[in-house]
Amino acid sequence: MLNTKTAGTTTPVSQTPDHVAIKPQRMGFEFGEQVPRYWLNDNYLLSHMMNALSVLFPQGEQFFVDSVRQFRDQITDPKLKEEVRGFIGQEAMHSLEHDAMNQHVRDQGMPVEEMEKHLEVVLGIASKLPKRHQLAITCALEHMTAMMADMLLARDDVREDMHESMQPLWVWHAIEETEHKAVTYDVFQQVGGTYAERSFYLAFSTAALGVMATYFTTRMMLNDRKGFSLKDAGKGLWRMWGKNGTFSSLIPTWLEYFKPDFHPWDHDNSELIARFKEQIQAHIAPQYRSGNRRTLQ
């Protein structure tokens, strides 16, 4: 049984750089006929895999928000309190934008509602865990999303694989995941989270995410049998897990989480935020350009 008692002294101060602002922004992305069915590298497997991840986001991010909200009254650092507000707001915006993408996936004949019901069951089970264990799951999944966000922003080839109609959504999401990548971790540290908890739940959450993403991807592929190509699937698997693959290249970063003194901002990639932030402003829908602060607070 993992130790759930508060351990020793905690670091009560946010470690997010002062020049990184965590503010929600509604984008108003639209997805229609301009989006090709296989929008990622013109590849059947890769496109369904990313569609599957999108289906996971709205409910998953609500779980993240709920796990942090349970500890808001224990946060004493004013800067971290404000960052939690920003985190909740950004996750709300992510849910709204991915809901729009998921409707597009649904319109292609994918069983999105059924997959969402299955995810609801899984997250319902997770929500019965001790509160700090739920927060540890959130920290682990935020580590994985931050890894993928960093890769997407840092690697031109990954962005260039995306059709121009989809690239803005994923770049915007990656920017905001980078901005708030340490918020849940800092909350976890402040409320006495232990090394055993965060290490165990990284392994646990990685396995759970892998199972759910594979299941969702397989369901979509079965619904799109006419597009199946063994050659295409092989290329997709190599792109993910081959030399310098999008997933295989993340393994060293994934392992860094197991360092006893790990912190998400040990790798300061804030220059990527600055590089892409201005570029993404051009994709804000006109009705949201004055800013939209709707949150799930």
TrEMBL record:
The chain crosses the membrane at residues 200-218. The keyword Transmembrane helix applies. Keywords: Membrane, Transmembrane, Transmembrane helix. InterPro entries: UCP07580. It comes from the Bacteria. This is Metal-dependent hydrolase.
